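Try it yourself: sequence plus magnesium ion, in.
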Amino acid sequence: MASIHTRGLVKKYGSLTVLHGLDLEIPDHELVVLVGPSGCGKSTLLRVLAGLEAIDEGDLFIGEDRVNDIPAAKRDIAMVFQDYALYPHMTVRQNMAFALEMRGMARGEIKERVEKAAALLAIEPYLDRRPKALSGGQRQRVAMGRAIVRNPRVFLFDEPLSNLDARLRTQVRAEIKTLSQQLRTTMVFVTHDQVEAMTMADRIVVMKSGVIQQVGSPEDVYETPANLFVAGFIGSPS
Ligand code: ADP
Ligand code: MG
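Structure, out:
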């Protein structure tokens, strides 16, 4: 079954059409990597899925529910941003607990979820620190922790590794892949880096100028590219 699917999804900013009628299926429990050049509409697509932007045409489903008009807070989706978007005045623990407190969850349950996620991400030693006392990699983990505690149906990642150095990027990449297997969850991971896409994905979605070019396993896309754009983009070094 699909966690998310879209039919003829169109998104415009004024007279600029950014997403040109996308038909997309994100199957349950897969790590789907959406890859394409800068400006092709990847962030816009994630924001539309998360409910942070309205769509102009088409339909969007989460599971069997059409969610076109369902606000972000009521979609069972958590988004991890490139700039982490942590609250600077709160500790790591408070950052992770905040959304759960807003939901009115019991304290004991919040504590349990925060500590479990912190253990999974190896950030327990930093729970009482504030974000500015953390390294980039640690902040990235806190941002992931904040999504994990919500136990969402789908995680959306918008270029979450682009602020990390190359060595750390490789490490966190592997950690996200492991997390997706441990949590048995659905993840949509956006990157403009084809190597990142090839190494992480169960399934790759290649996009160009707001149009999906190909969907397939990394092997399919590499060995049987649908067109010259895919061949050049996936085949070329980053
Ligand atoms: P990507 O994430 O693939 O780099 P984006 O989704 O950010 O691409 O942008 C796709 C296109 O939409 C670009 O041409 C960008 O300039 C435009 N765009 C993005 N956000 C807005 C906005 N809020 N208002 C107007 N145009 C936007
Ligand atoms: Mg983007």
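One thing you can check immediately is this: Residues 42-43 surround magnesium ion (ligand 2) (CB under 6 Å).
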